[in-house]
Write a structure and sequence with these properties.
The protein is built from three helices and 22 strands. It has helices at about 1-15, 30-40, 305-310, and strands at about 65, 70-80, 85, 100-105, 110, 125-130, 135, 150, 155-160, 170-175, 180, 195-200, 205, 220, 225-230, 245, 250, 265-270, 275, 290, 295-300, 320. It is elongated. The chain binds 2-acetamido-2-deoxy-beta-D-glucopyranose (NAG) (6 copies). Belongs to the polygalacturonase-inhibiting protein family.
Length: about 325
């Protein structure tokens, strides 16, 4: 019948113009629902324009789906001025997230929401260069799978929660460039041996280095520009594997002559402290050293790094002498 074949043609056309069959849509409907909530919470900002509700969310920018499970495993929102408001609580409803990043979002404000603790599979949490405020929440210790916790360059206040020492998988921790106060918690004396990279610099931290840090092998330890005090010599010594240490602009006070420089050390900045004694043997293989503005004495060794650095690495000490400073008397 003529009308039937017309109908067939029409329905064929309809089928052809439909979106691809559902088996090729990878996005999990629950994830899509949550992502659209997040988009709305950020006021449908321009950065989410690829998040068209009629399309597969596994093709959207900012997020990534796992190849096998098709669940959202990555959320990476970076460099967007028009993303404004607090971190939406809905972020906690993406249960398969392994990596969450908010970076360079000057108008991201508010505190770190408790909803984040629902992300049991999270391995990396990055909230950097934002205007997020409030304390570093102790509840972050519930994210047992975290290997990286990066909270640099925000407006975080209060002290470092001791509970963070319970994150036993951590390899990297950066809390630098906030307004943190108080001391480095004693609980940090028992940090996991996996922790290689620690940056607590540019805060207002006070007190000493935790007892126990002497037993650890940091690769990079940045503590500069705080108000830390006391003896930091335990960070060094034979058999350590520290490579980069920046202790500058603190109130550390110890005898440097008694420090055994580990063979692994490459970068050592200790400027602006109260360190006394003389320069120990073993510094020559370094590529950078700065011990200016301390209370050191004695002759500057020759060769290696001492040939590379200019006087500004050594000036303003009690009585260091010899090239590149004036000759010893
Ligand atoms: C969201 O967008 C509307 C309309 O452009 C605007 O009036 C409102 O202030 C925005 N809200 C935020 C939190 O940016
Ligand atoms: C925080 O907000 C201020 C004022 O809008 C802005 O100047 C600053 O760059 C922001 N900070 C960051 C780290 O984005
Ligand atoms: C860590 O992740 C694994 C899977 O990668 C998961 O089985 C486990 O439950 C997670 N740990 C916690 C404390 O949730
Ligand atoms: C941090 O917050 C304080 C008080 O809310 C504000 O005065 C200051 O400008 C903020 N700093 C930055 C870098 O945004
Ligand atoms: C630190 O590193 C050195 C050299 O790699 C190693 O011999 C030592 O056992 C390590 N110590 C700890 C506490 O991991
Ligand atoms: C060493 O530190 C002092 C004090 O901050 C600084 O003036 C000098 O430029 C630094 N020198 C080098 C080589 O970094």
């Amino acid at each position: 019948m003529r009308s039937l074949s017309l109908l067939t043609t029409l329905s064929l056309l309809t089928i052809l113009s439909l979106p691809p069959p559902s088996e090729s849509v990878r996005c999990h409907p629950q994830d899509k629902k949550v992502l659209l909530k997040i988009k709305q919470a950020f006021n449908n900002s321009y950065d989410f324009s690829s998040w068209n509700p009629d399309t597969d969310c596994c093709t959207w920018y900012i997020v990534k789906c796992d190849r096998l499970t098709n669940r959202i495993t990555r959320f990476n929102l970076i460099t967007a001025d028009d993303v404004a408001g607090p971190i939406p609580a809905a972020i906690g409803d993406l249960p398969h997230l392994e990596s969450l990043t908010f970076h360079k979002l000057p108008n991201l404000i508010g505190t770190i929401p408790p909803a984040i603790t629902k992300l049991a599979n999270l391995r990396t949490l990055t909230i950097t260069w934002t205007n997020v405020t409030g304390p570093i929440p102790p509840f972050l210790s519930q994210l047992k799978n975290l290997t990286g916790l990066y909270l640099s360059f925000n407006n975080l206040t209060g002290s470092i929660p001791p509970s963070l020492a319970q994150l036993r998988q951590l390899t990297g921790l950066s809390l630098d460039r906030n307004r943190l106060t108080g001391s480095i918690p004693d609980a940090f004396g028992d940090i996991p041996a996996s922790l290689m990279y620690v940056d607590l610099s540019h805060n207002q931290l006070s007190g000493g280095i935790p007892r126990g840090w002497g037993g650890f092998n940091f690769t990079t330890l940045q503590l500069e520009r705080n108000r830390l005090e006391g003896d930091a010599s335990g960070l060094f010594g034979r058999g350590k594997s520290i490579e980069n240490a920046d202790l500058s602009r603190n109130l550390f006070k110890f005898d440097l002559s008694r420090v055994e420089i580990p063979q692994s050390l490459r970068y050592l900045d200790m400027n602006h402290n109260k360190i006394f004694g003389s320069l120990p043997a073993g510094l020559e293989p370094l590529t950078f050293v700065n011990v200016s503005y301390n209370r050191l004495c004695g002759r500057i060794p020759s060769g290696g790094v001492f040939q590379e650095m200019d006087y500004s690495s050594f000036f303003h000490n009690k009585c260091l002498c010899g090239p590149p400073l004036p000759e010893c008397k």
